[in-house]
Amino acid sequence: MQTASTNICERLFNKSICEISLLLNIPRSTVSGIIRKWKQMGTTATQPPSGRPHKMTVLGQHMLQHTLCRSRQLSAESIAKDLQTSCGLQISTTTVRRELHGMGFHGRAGVSKLYIDRCNAKRWMQLV
């Protein structure tokens, strides 16, 4: 049984690549790539993505961000244990660090700030 896409492809094969690209208003390289893919694989469907799927789900990322915002002093190991108990995610500390880095959180020391009391605030306002 032939599908509609098969019929369309068979009809378009009678035309040149330039005619097809002008007819569909797409580049010639795209048309030739689609035709090549059709001849080799018999379909133009894309292949499934390569590689292993992510360990962290969207819910896990939200929980990770919530845990970090609650207390920024936690270590990656304690965050991994907390996620294991709350969400049931079995992730390593390296994965936690990688996800935090992807979210924009980095393990850096905070900037040292001067203690500002009333006297220092008055002096500062007089300088400015």
Automatic annotation (TrEMBL):
Superkingdom per UniProt: Eukaryota
Recorded hits in InterPro entries, A to Z, give:
Homeodomain-like_sf, Transposase_Tc1-like, WH-like_DNA-bd_sf
**Transposase Tc1-like domain location:** 67-122
One Pfam match, given by its short name, reads: HTH_Tnp_Tc3_2
What is the protein's name according to its record? Transposase Tc1-like domain-containing protein
